[in-house]
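Section 5.1 Outputs to date
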Amino acid sequence: MSFPSFHGKNYENASYFLDDLEMAFLASGWDADEVKLRAFPLVMRDEAKVWFQGLTTEEKADWATLKDSFLMKYVTDNTPEKLWRKLTCLQQDNFASYSAYEAQFVKLWIEWEASLNEGERAPNFLQKERFLVGLNPLLQEEVQAKFSETFDEARQWARVKDQKLQFQANRARRELQPPIDEQLPQPQPHQAAQATQAGMLEGDRDGRSYGSGFSF
């Protein structure tokens, strides 16, 4: 019966490894925890072996504790399947701007490629197509009309077209705003009445002053 080995690489599934190791122990008749504890370091390789050597004596002395420490170290959400699901759910509408969408897409894509098995590589067209699908409909239509051949080319067109759409949206908002004079605050009715009364009083004073200087 051959035993699986674990290297601590991103593409390895730690949960599957432990399941296979337990099955190998069972098939070999090694069901005692003491035997498992002695065998475990023998199936660790490379980075995983360095990790094991750094564990405390208490962690190495109990099988359940050792498994928990192993899973805590190597089980993450960065599996190819989970990262790809995040990529397919990513939409520009989820963000306030195109630049935020682009940054998140690039980050997830790098993480997804790093999680693939050694020797695996995504087709060249896939990154561009996935990027285009996530754009908002208006920007997507503008960029697709340019028939970009690569992701980098599509990304450059997206930046240019996003600036154009932002300019058009800002201009439309300015056109909808009323003229400046229409935005000036209008006097309230009681303020208008007070102004009229003040004008009449001022006129009376003016009339008296004129009358005092002339005789008819």
